Amino acid sequence: MQSTFSKKELAVEQLVCAVNLYLDEEYVPAITLAGAAEEILGKLLHFKGHKNALGVLVAYVTQFWAPRRGIEKTEKQAIKDANEIKNHLKHFDGSNETVSFNPHFDAFLLIQRAIENYNRLGEPPMELFEQFAQGSRDF
Predict the structure, then answer these.
(1) pLDDT computed for residue 139 by the predictor
(2) Predicted structure pTM score
(3) What ranges in the chain are assigned the alpha helix state H?
(4) What is the pLDDT of residues 41-57, one digit of tens each?
(5) In angstroms, rounded to a whole number, what is the distance separating the alpha carbons of residues 123 and 116?
(6) What is the pLDDT of residue 96?
(7) Domain map of the chain by residue range?
(8) 117: Cβ contacts below 8 Å, ≥ 6 apart
(9) Is 15 within 8 Å of 111 (Cβ atoms)?
(10) Which of 44, 48, 56, 77 has its CA 20 to 30 A from that of 120?
(11) Maximum Cα–Cα distance across the chain
């Protein structure tokens, strides 16, 4: 039976699953789900004329972090860097069969971005997101 869903509701469900997986130390699927949620919630913000977490990160990297280190970084490069692991886990282009990353840290970063987008949309606080924040205070 076919049903109709709100993309925002689906993204929130993906984010909740990602946080639960993270708390269960299942970092790779948490990255994939958090990445999907972050992208949908971020695009909802963009279409409403608001800056999303990726936009804030890219602005910081291109306007502050990179110039202070004498590095030239375009917005396109910063976006590619920020989404690198998420995209490695979603796509295979045949050029490399392996990928090196820190699953725990990369899951943390993507979940943080997704939660930031959720909050920027004015959604109600969730106890689960607070548990995530408490559980990741060591980063």
Answers:
(1) 65
(2) 0.91
(3) 7-23, 27-47, 53-60, 66-68, 75-82, 84-90, 103-120, 127-135
(4) 999 999 999 999 999 99
(5) 10
(6) 75
(7) 7-91+100-135
(8) 37, 38, 41, 42, 44, 45, 52, 53
(9) yes
(10) 77
(11) 57
